[in-house]
Amino acid sequence: MKRRRFLVGFASVLTLPAWAQRAPRAAAVPGGIARIRLGAADPAPRARLGQERLLVVWERDEWIALVGIALATKAGAKLRVEAQRAGGALERFEVDVGPKQYAAQHLKVPPGQVDLSPEDLARYERERAHLAEVLGTFSDPAPATLAMLQPVPGSRSGTFGLRRYFNGRPRSPHTGMDIAAPSGTPVVAANTGEVIDTGEYFFPGRTVILDHGQGLLSLYAHLSAIEVGVGEAIAAGAPLGKVGATGRVTGPHLHFAVYLNTVAVDPALFLPD
Ligand SMILES: [Zn+2]
Prior knowledge:
Elements: H1 2-14, H2 18-22, E1 33-37, E2 46-49, E3 52-53, E4 55-59, E5 62-68, E6 78-84, E7 90-96, E8 104-107, H3 111-114, H4 118-135, E9 163-166, E10 169-170, E11 177-180, E12 186-188, E13 193-201, E14 205-213, E15 216-223, E16 225-226, E17 233-234, E18 239-242, E19 253-260, E20 263-265
Parallel strand pairs: 8-9
Antiparallel strand pairs: 1-5, 2-3, 2-6, 4-5, 6-7, 9-10, 11-19, 12-18, 13-14, 13-17, 14-15, 15-19, 16-18, 19-20
Zinc ion binds at residues 174, 176, 178, 255.
């Protein structure tokens, strides 16, 4: 543990740019990430939010737990985090969730486009259960770095968290970042990891999901082509597929999402400005 700690500190001082050393940017708001300082004692503490284990990393001179805060969390809520220190002592922390107002989008669409057919609904429910299981992945090794690469060049939509209404009825909020790029543009892994899911799904179309360690996952959707298989190791910057317009979309773009302790957090927090 001491040895690994030294190497991580060494790498972050000598090779990572300044923004990467503090990635992700922390903000205790819905869709954001809270940081909890857990002290310097070895071994690494284990931390939980409810049933979900949290990512714990060594940062400069102490252990830090990162808490992904679900978009559905209300401002003013208190999240209770438990940390098990070396020696077994249990410590409790409270995260006060602050306000964050995401934009709303109201769309009027023909009723037939809002309500899925029974077959599509059954397919969607099956896929939702499968994806929830995949997004619950927690593997023990911590990510070597939390900083990420933008997986495709292009302008970012900034629509993470967008509250969508179809004919006045609330739909699920937008859980990722959309990056505009022509069909066929190579998409690369935002961080080093392992491919834990590939598939073609009703809403996200052709999709790849990567596990970067300790509940930090990234998801790439609407791909025209998938070039990796489940179980493959992938390095940051290595190609995984191509931009497309598969699934329910109006045009080609990459939907890029980042998950921490099973909840979608703003991918921009991990990317350079
Ligand atoms: Zn999207």
